[in-house]
Amino acid sequence: MQLTQEQKDMLSGKHGNAVRKSMEILVALGEIFGAKRLLPVKSVQISGVSYDNLGDAGLEFLEEMASDGKVRVKTTLNPAGMDIENWKALGIPEDFAKKQIMVIDAFRKMDVETTCTCTPYFIGNKPDKGDHIAWGESSAVTYANSVLGAYTNKEGGPSTIASALTGFTPEYGYHLDEKRQPGFIVNVKAKVDNPMLFGALGMIIGKKAEGKVPLIKGIGKATTDDLKSFSASIVTYGSAPIYHIEGITPNDYDEPSESFDVTEDDMKNALSEMNDTDDVDFVFIGCPHCSLDELKKISGLLKGKKVHKEFWIGVARPIKKKADELGYSKAIEESGAKFACDTCHVVAPLKGRFKGIATNSGKGVFYGRGKNKFKIAYRTLEECIDLAVKE
Ligand code: F3S
Predict the structure, then answer these.
(1) I need a labelling partner for 211 at 20 to 30 A (CA). Which of 18, 100, 219, 303 fits?
(2) Containing domain of residue 265, as a range?
């Protein structure tokens, strides 16, 4: 791989130990994947933030990097294992909380913006079309590539830190236009008009994609929340972390020849596959983290009601603050629902705590079953709230 003088200096240790280690990671990665050079990145989203995933070895690595490393580009964090301020109310054990706070402190020392969210594009970490970035969380990566027209691979925790501390990423994979071309067409012949249905469509397409890039036709319109849900689901179930929707997403492409249809029957079958139960003791909305628009809707739906299940709303803290200012939070908090800033139902240590979860997220179904062994009620936002308020 060809390195500039600045990059060679980084590799030789001239800029300190953390930068040297970072450059070693990026060069090794670039060589494995045949990259010719390193590209400058506009922003980074670091994955692997939950202590539940990192463990002590991960924490030790972070503290070592933080001893002399500072980020060189805008960098935010993926959700952590708990709400950093409000962890007690969410029932997080104290030992876990101590370790999670040490993780966040290490990132703060590196000058990372310690807002923990999988929707960094709602809080000012929003690349423009054509920007190269190094993001880690799969739904955010897919949204950035597909909806924003940015260029990123789905990076692991160490490579996102390495990019943040050097400002570079190896040029391979979805940084190259030829890898972003669609491999098949999906003709959608069913009504898909809310985030839950987009999540189900994501599962159908993701399962058939075998890692290829889909070009989707037949979607008349899609909201930001629909695309957020779709981005999370499609990549979770097996698609490449980029898709094109005719008339909606901004990237150029050539038409492939292979195609298949998604019918109303396919959607019905997907929904029945994604639903196990009506009997839930936990409701989670905000996978990926809620938009302000979703909080407005939830607030309206919960107004004057009480929830009778543990009910978490995953959101980035700055969006929650905006909801406070706009008066959306009051009805939510008065109902007994809890904001889960910085975290979510998948990265928090919840295994064994609940038996059934209601969610409107296709990605939430996959990890709710896989990681936490929950039974699932896969419903619309409105239906999830009905289940939450039911005695
Ligand atoms: Fe975000 Fe957690 Fe879902 S990281 S995409 S809310 S699994």
Answers:
(1) 219
(2) 181-273
